[in-house]
Every structure is written in C-alpha cells, then in structure tokens.
Amino acid sequence: MKKILMQIMVLALYVMYCCVVAEAGPEDYGPYSYTKYTQSITARDGGCISTYVFVTSAAGPRPLIVFRHGFGRSKDVMQDYGKYWGTRGFIVILNGSRTGISPDYTGKDSNDMIDCANWAVQRSGQTDNYLSGRINPTKVVLGGHSAGGYTAEIATYKNLVLGEGNFDCGVMVLYDPVPTDNEYAATIAQSIFIPSVMLYGVPSICNLFGAGKVIFQNTAGPSYGIYVKAADHCDFESYYTLSCAVLCFRWPFGGWDACRNSRVKRYGTAMIEAYLNCEPAAYPYINGTAAQADTGIQIYPESRGLSMPPDGCP
User: Fold this and answer.
1) Is 291 contained in some domain?
2) Of 173, 17, 181, 166, which Cα lies nearest the Cα of 103?
3) Residue 235: which of 82, 227, 1 has the closest Cα?
4) Would 10 be classed as within a structural domain?
C-alpha cells in the first residue's frame, strides 16, 4: 500500500513539474473571470445553432473566438477551452454541429461558424444584452479541431475571399485538422493570407494519417506548423473523454495527456495574442527562443513569415 501511495505521489509531482513549472506561459489561465451562457443562435437557413458563449470580465471590446469540435463529437468536449480563453480576455463561442454524421462542411457547417460570429457582432452593436459593446469585429478568430478545423478553414476562406460575414477574420487556429477533400483544402488555403497556426499529432486513423498538413503547406499568410510530439488526436480536445479514447483506438492506454494538451493551448493562444493583441510575452513562442527550446514539439521547417513583432505592432 505504501509503495502504491509513493508511486502516486511521484506521478503527481511529475505532472506538476511538467505542466506548471516547465511550461509556464500562454497556456496558463489568465487573470479574468468569465460567465458561461447556453445560447441558441438562428442560422441563415432558419435553423437553430446550439452554442456555449463564454464572456470574459475583461473590459472593452474584446477579440472573438469561434471554435468548432470534430466529427461525431460535441461542443461539450471543448468547454475547457472556452473557460481558459475567457480568463485570458476573449469572448468565445463553441458551436455544436447540426449535421451529425452527415456533414456538410462546405455548406451548413462552415456557414454556421460565420453565422455565430455575425450574431455576436450584431449583438455587440445593440443595447441591453450580455454582449453589448463587447466584440471587436476586426479581431475574430475562426478555429477548430479535427473536421472542425477543416470547417474553420472553409469558414475563413468564405470570410476572406467570398466576403461572408460582418467581421474580419484575423487569425486561423487549427488543431490536428482533418480535411475530407485534400485538393479543395489545399486550393482554398492558397487564398488565406492571414496568420494561421496549425498543430498536429501522431498520424493515425483519427486524423487520416496527417492529412491536414496539406492546409499548412499551402496557406498564403504567416504560417506556423507544429508537431506536438507523441500527441494523440484526442490530446487536442480540451479534456479526457473515454469516448474519444475508444473511437481513436487509444483506450485503455492513452487518449489524452495534460502536458501535451498544455502545449496545444500554448502555441495556439500565443499566435492569437501575438497577432491580435500585439502581446510581447507571446513573441518568444512564435518560432522564437521559447519555442525552439521546447523539446516537446517540432516546428515544421516550412513555417514562414513569422518575424516578431508582427506588422502593425509597436
């Protein structure tokens, strides 16, 4: 019994060292509080988009993040990202899929992400609601995990190239994205000129053996590609679920690791804060000294256009 307790204590100390001492940075919770709302948003086709909206206590118009879950998953598995970004001063919308196991990525799914951002910007311009005056429409982030990342890429393309939405997408953030049409994903990526960060895990059945790298390889703007060493596809969700571990054939030996997830948050958020907030503390993580010293990641050599500070920042 004593031996078991000792092993537990050693494991706990290791996790504390890995995730707190060694990795203090943009992945930490911030100084603000947040309020979570369960919100139904009317889509352009008249349907209802189920969402969670996290509103930060930080004052003034804030950047907006719209983040989408993967195929067969739900907005619930992304909740900890909403809480985390809320404490760092962002407004966050996590939208659920309306298409279930019959996705429509180029249509309804990507439209819904744009409609969520539109709704938030419209509400910000109105009075007497919890988003009044809270959104900066020039600082919107579209992102997602797995097929949700592919959805976010398409939504970003629609905003930048097709002019959809009453906002300006400023950064694209993709977590182990999984396109279902590689040729289309590569083609539209060539028109995405804003900064983008894409984090990848070990090639597996759940990420179609690294298919999402075709997006990173073709984006036109500043592009940051990172392999999170030994990361499972499930490490890119916000917390452990048995369902993801089973679906990705990682149960009972894996499925989610706090330290690897901490790195996902670190570099995704650093990209947002560097380019949207001109935050100097984020610069070392954008292919800088902090990132290059991190033995838990591999920066893809094709990463490009990442000089700090970004254009337009002091």
Assistant:
1) yes
2) 181
3) 227
4) no
